[in-house]
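Customer escalation, tier 2.

The customer says the design service returned an amino acid string that "doesn't look like it belongs to this structure." They asked us to rerun it and document both sides in this ticket. The original C-alpha cells are below, unchanged.
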C-alpha cells in the first residue's frame, strides 16, 4: 500500500470552501483531504458528476459532500432495522426516520436507498465518479462493499474508505480487509493518507 502525507493531497480547502462547517462524521483534518481526493477525479465539478455513499447514518457525510461540491448528484445507502440479519437490541439500530435525518434538516437534496449492501443491486444505478465506503465495518462487509465499489466507479473515478485505523476493533477489521484487498485484488494500488483514517483507490482510464 502506498502512503502519502496530508499535504500531498489537501488542496486550498479553506479558500475554496470558506463557509464549510466541519461535522463530527470526519476528524478535523479529514474534510480537506476528502476534498483533495475527490478533486483527483477528472470532471468532478461538472454538473453530471455523481457520488454514491455506502453507509448514510444521519446523513452528516452527505451534507459535507454537498457543501464541497454543490453540483454533485449524491446517492446514499443504509440498511433498515428489519433488514438486519441479526436484530440489534432495541434502540441500537437506526430507524428509517433517523437515517439521513441531518441531511434532510439541512435541506440537502440527495437520493436515499435502503438495503443490505451485500444484497443491494448497485448495477441498476450506473457508474459513479466517487464511491465512499463507510457502511458496516465488519471484515466480510468491507470486502463485499469494496468489490461493489470497484465495479460501480467509472474509469478515472475514485473509491474512498473511512475508518482505516487501529484505534478500535471495527477499525481494525476495516484495516485488515483493505490490506488484504490491496495485496490480493488491487495490485498494491490503494493509498493511505498518513495521520488520517482515509484510504483511496483510483480506477485507471483505459488507453
Amino acid at each position: 500500500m502506498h502512503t502519502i502525507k496530508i499535504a500531498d493531497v489537501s488542496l486550498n480547502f479553506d479558500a475554496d470552501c470558506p463557509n464549510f462547517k466541519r461535522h463530527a462524521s470526519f476528524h478535523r483534518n479529514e474534510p480537506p483531504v476528502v476534498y483533495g481526493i475527490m478533486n483527483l477525479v477528472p470532471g468532478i465539478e461538472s454538473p453530471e458528476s455523481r457520488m454514491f455513499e455506502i453507509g448514510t447514518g444521519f446523513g452528516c457525510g452527505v451534507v459535507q459532500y454537498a457543501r464541497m461540491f454543490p453540483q454533485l448528484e449524491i446517492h446514499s445507502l443504509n440498511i433498515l432495522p428489519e433488514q438486519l440479519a441479526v436484530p440489534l437490541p432495541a434502540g441500537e439500530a437506526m430507524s428509517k426516520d433517523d437515517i439521513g435525518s441531518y441531511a434532510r434538516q439541512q435541506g440537502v437534496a440527495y437520493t436515499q436507498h435502503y438495503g443490505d449492501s451485500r444484497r443491494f443491486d448497485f448495477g441498476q444505478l450506473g457508474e459513479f465518479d466517487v464511491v465512499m465506503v463507510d457502511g458496516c465495518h465488519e471484515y466480510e462487509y468491507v470486502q463485499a462493499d469494496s468489490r461493489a465499489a470497484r465495479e460501480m466507479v467509472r474509469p478515472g473515478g475514485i473509491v474512498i474508505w473511512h475508518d482505516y485505523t487501529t484505534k478500535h476493533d471495527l477499525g481494525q477489521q476495516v484495516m485488515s480487509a483493505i490490506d488484504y484487498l490491496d495485496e490480493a485484488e488491487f495490485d498494491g494500488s490503494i493509498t493511505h493518507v498518513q495521520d488520517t483514517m482515509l484510504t483511496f483507490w483510483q480506477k485507471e482510464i483505459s488507453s
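Tier 2 assessment: The sequence is consistent with the input. Residues 147 and 155 are 15 Å apart (CA to CA). The first helix runs from residue 6 to 9. Sent an explanation to the customer and offered a walkthrough call.
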